[in-house]
Design a protein that fits this description.
Layout (H helix, E strand, L loop, with lengths): L3 H11 L3 H18 L6 E6 L15 E6 L2 H12 L7 E3 L12 E7 L1 H4 L3 H11 E12 L4 H9 L14 H10 L2 E9 L8 H6 L2 H9 L6 E8 L17 E2 L2 E2 L3 H11 L2
Parallel strand pairs: 1-2, 1-4, 2-3, 4-5
Antiparallel strand pairs: 5-7, 6-7, 8-9
Length: 268
C-alpha cells in the first residue's frame, strides 16, 4: 500500500480527468438533495476531497469544518488563497483519531476514507463515536467492480502493484455499517463511462449514464452511502415488587376492617 500523500495526489489527479469531473458533479447534486433535510449544529468533512472541494456548501447546518490528513492539502489552500480563492479553514488530523468530542457532530461527509486508511474499521468506529444519536454520514468511495477498473486490470494483466487504493465493495461496507448499528438509507452509484481523454468520445458515451444506471448501476465508478446512526433506547431496570399472598395456609387473609368486624360479631 502506497503512502497517504501519494494516494491523495493520485485521487486529486483522477478528479481532474473527464470521468472524475463528471462523477464529482453527480456527487455534488446528490449531497445537495440529501442535505436539504439534515439540520443540526456541527458538520465536518474528512477524506481525500476535504480541503480541495467543498461538499458542504449546500448544508443547512449552522457550522461546518474541513479536516485534512496531509499537510500538502494546506499548502494547496495557500496557493488558492493567493489566487483570490477562499478555501475553508482546515485542521490536520488523522482520520483514525479525529479531534472531535464524542456525540457532537450532526453530519460527517467522508470521501475515500476507507481507501486511504490501513484500518478502515477504526475509521468507521471513529465516525460512529463523533456522531450524535440519529446523526447522518455520507460516505464516498471507489467501486472495485466498476467497468473502468476491470478494463484497467485487464490491460495491466491483473497486476496488484498498479492498484493504488485498497477498494472496499458495497456489500462489505454495508455489512460494516450494519455491525455498528447504522441504518443504510440509500446507496447511489455514479460514473458509468469508461475513462478517456477524448472529450468528444466522452460526450458520445453520455447515454451510458442513463442506460447503465438502469441496467447495471453496480458497475459505476463510484458509490455514495447515506446512513444514519441508530441508538437503541435502554429502559432502566426497576425491581419487580411481588404482590402479597392472598392465601396463607388454606385460609383467606382478611384486611383490618374485616378482622375488626369478625372480632365484634364472633367474640364469645
Amino acid at each position: 500500500m502506497k503512502s497517504k500523500s501519494e494516494m491523495l495526489k493520485y485521487c486529486s489527479n483522477w478528479y481532474q480527468t473527464l470521468s472524475g469531473k463528471a462523477a464529482l458533479k453527480r456527487v455534488d447534486d446528490i449531497c445537495t438533495d440529501i442535505m436539504t433535510e439534515i439540520f443540526g449544529y456541527y458538520a465536518i468533512q474528512i477524506g481525500a476531497l476535504s480541503g480541495e472541494h467543498d461538499l458542504l456548501h449546500s448544508s443547512r447546518i449552522a457550522a461546518d469544518f474541513s479536516i485534512v490528513s496531509d499537510k500538502s492539502v494546506l499548502e494547496l489552500q495557500d496557493t488558492q488563497a493567493k489566487n483570490n480563492k477562499k478555501p475553508k479553514t482546515s485542521l490536520i488530523s488523522s482520520i483514525e483519531q479525529l479531534p472531535v468530542a464524542t456525540d457532537n457532530i450532526d453530519l460527517v461527509v467522508a470521501s475515500h476514507v476507507l481507501e486511504l486508511s490501513e484500518d478502515p474499521h477504526q475509521v468507521l468506529r471513529e465516525i460512529d463515536r463523533v456522531l450524535v444519536p440519529e446523526g447522518h454520514c455520507i460516505l464516498i468511495g471507489f467501486n472495485p467492480f466498476s467497468v473502468s477498473r476491470l478494463a484497467r486490470l485487464i490491460r495491466s494483466g491483473f497486476a496488484r502493484k498498479n492498484n493504488v487504493y485498497m477498494m472496499r465493495s458495497v456489500p462489505r461496507v454495508r455489512d460494516w455499517f450494519s455491525l455498528l448499528g447504522f441504518e443504510v438509507l440509500d446507496v447511489h452509484y455514479m460514473g458509468m463511462r469508461l475513462g478517456t481523454n477524448n472529450k468528444k468520445l466522452f460526450e458520445r458515451l453520455r447515454w451510458l449514464e442513463r442506460w447503465g444506471g438502469l441496467a447495471a448501476p453496480f458497475l459505476g465508478n463510484m458509490y455514495l452511502f447515506h446512513v444514519k446512526k441508530q441508538v437503541v433506547a435502554m429502559r432502566p431496570h426497576k425491581p419487580i415488587w411481588e404482590a402479597p399472598a392472598v392465601l396463607i395456609g388454606g385460609k383467606v387473609v382478611l384486611n383490618r376492617t374485616a378482622q375488626k368486624i369478625r372480632r365484634q360479631n364472633y367474640s364469645n
